[in-house]
Amino acid sequence: MRAVLVALLGGVLVLSGCSGGEDGRESPTFAAERPAADGDVDSPELAAARDAAGIEPCPDTTDDPVAGDGLPDVTLACLGGGDDVRLAGLRGRPHVVNLWASWCAPCREELPVLQAAHTALGDRVGFLGVDYADPDPAAALELADRSGVTYPLVADPDEDVRKELGVIGLPQTVFVDADGTVVATERTAYDSEQDLLAAIDEHLGVKP
User: Fold this and answer.
1) Which of 80, 168, 180, 194 counts the most CB atoms within 10 A of its CB?
2) Buried/exposed 96-116: b ≥16 CB within 10 Å, e otherwise
């Protein structure tokens, strides 16, 4: 009987990682729910999938990292090939940096919301997706394509940003001002374009 109760409790804990949060938005999917990351993020097949999806090239970044409370000084490969991105060099305009993965259930619902906000704001705010701890970059690009995502995507299969960004689950969204300073981090999924645009206005001072 004890073994049965432990098993049932374990199932409840796993499901709770994907259930609705107190504010009605979905809670993140936790790392214990995903397989180990193992996969090449740059191949001719992945490049073809990225181009077919219409995903934008990865941004150029400066050589000098931001001093103080900026993004971690980590360089990540562009998903599907292209220029690597030094996160600490993202500056010049505000950025929304979203951590997601193909195995993350709430991310599937959130990706179209991010794309809608990207479309609404144009060049005033940069968007960057980080495919995090994902064992299947091909599945990630397929999901991005189905979700209509066109903003740039990088890959972090080895969880290089986990400690400095305090990643405990996905999705996670980091708001970065034009000077490269991290001004806010949200760890719940945005379920509407209006909610995300309101957060961008609050944290980055950019109105739709």
Assistant:
1) 80
2) bbbbbbbbbbbbbbbbebbbb
Q: DSSP state, 88?
A: G
pLDDT score at 124: 97
d(CA 103, CA 135): 9
Q: Is 8 exposed, middle or buried (0-12, 13-18, 19+ CB in 10 A)?
A: exposed
CA angle 130, 136, 140 (to 5 degrees): 50
- Which run of H or E residues covers position 114? helix 105-121
Rg (CA), the chain: 17
Q: Which amino acid is at 115?
A: Q
- For 34, other C-beta atoms within 10 Å of its C-beta total 18
DSSP at 36: P
pLDDT digits (tens, 9 = 90+) for 135-190: 999 999 999 999 999 999 999 999 999 999 999 999 999 999 999 999 999 999 99
Q: Give the angle 99-111-144 at the CA atoms, nearest 5°.
A: 90
